[in-house]
Amino acid sequence: MKFIVVGLGNFGASLAEKLTMQGNEVIGVDQRIEKISALKEKITHTICLDATDEVAFSTLPLKNTDVVVVAIGEDEGANIMVSALCREVQVKRLISRAVNRLHEKVLGALGISEIAHPEEESAERWSKRLCMTGLVDSFELNSNYSIVEVVVPQKYVGRSIQEIGFREKYELLVLTILKNTEQRTSFGKNIVTTVLHGVPRPDTILEEGDILAIYGYNDHIKAFL
C-alpha cells in the first residue's frame, strides 16, 4: 500500500517507520529539515515542504496514495488546514490526529471520521490496523508476536475453529470470541454491548460479526487476514 504521513513528530515518525518496515511505500512530509534528515534512511521517501501551502500541497502524489495520515500535533491550525485540503481533493482515505476534544469536534465538522489519539493509541497499533484487513485492535508482546482482535473474515462464517485449522494451517491460537449484542434499556434506547465468550471449543461455529482474539506470529496473523 502507499501512504503519505504529514507531520514527522514522535507519532508521525514512528508510524511512518513501522509502515515502511511492513513493506509499504511511505512518503514522510514535514517542513522541518532536521526531521527529514533524521528519517531519510528509515522510510521510503521524505519531502520537505509546508503542507499548509496549497501550491506545495498540490505537488504531493495524492491521487496515487491509498491512505493519508495528518499526524501534525503541535500546531492544531496547521493540522486542520491540511486535513481540510485533503478533504477538498478527496483523498481515498484520511486519518487525522486530534490533540483534544475541541480539535476532534472541528475535524468531525470537516467530515473526518477516522481520528487518531496518539496519547491513547500507539503507532504500533495504528500500523497494524492500517495494514491488516479486519483488525479491530492489537497488543504487541514483542517485535514478532502479538495478540490481536479481528473481525471474522466472511469466508469463515459458518465454519468451526477446527475446520478452519487455526493451529494446523496458520499456527495461531484463538484465545476467545467477543460478540456484540444489542440490548434495549428501560428508557427504550438500544445499546450495543460486547460479551466475552471464554475459551472457544474446537467445534465452536463462527458467526458473522464475531470478533476473534488471536495470539501468534505477526506474519502468520497477516497471512490469515
UniProtKB/TrEMBL annotation:
Q: This protein's superkingdom?
A: Bacteria
Q: Where is the RCK N-terminal domain?
A: 1-117
Query: Which residues are in coiled coils?
Result: none
Instruction: Supply the Gene3D superfamilies for this chain.
Output: NAD(P)-binding Rossmann-like Domain, Regulator of K+ conductance, C-terminal domain
Every copy of the RCK C-terminal domain together lies at: 134-225
Annotated Pfam families: TrkA_C, TrkA_N
Name of the protein in its database record: TrkA family potassium uptake protein
